[in-house]
Amino acid sequence: MTQPYDDRRTGVTTRGAARTGTAPRGRDRRAALLPAPPGRHRFPGEAPAVAVIGGGIAGLAAATALAERGAHVTLHERGPTLGGRLAGWPVVLSDGSTATMSRGFHAFFRQYYNLRGLLRRVDPGLDSLTGLPDYPLRHGGSGLRDSFARVPRTPPFSAVGFVALSPTFGWRDLFRMDARAALPLLDVRVPEVYARLDGVSAHDFLARVRFPEAAHHLAFEVFSRSFFADPRELSAAELVLMFHIYFLGSSEGLLFDVPNEPFPQALWNPLRRYLEGHGARVRTGTAVESVAPVPGGGLSVTAEGRTRRHDALVLALDTEGLRTVVAASPELGDGPWRARIGRLRTAPPFLVSRLWLDRRVAPERPGFLGTSGYGPLDNVSVLERWEGEAARWSRRTGGSVVELHAYAVAPDADREKQQRLLLDELHRVYPETAHARVVDARHEWRADCPLFPVGGYADRPTVRTPDPWVTVAGDLVRTELPVALMERAATSGFLAANALLEKWGVRGVPLWTVPSEGRSAALRALARLGGR
Question: What ranges do the domains of the chain cover?
Answer without folding.
Answer: 7-84+263-344+459-513, 89-133+256-261+347-446, 149-252
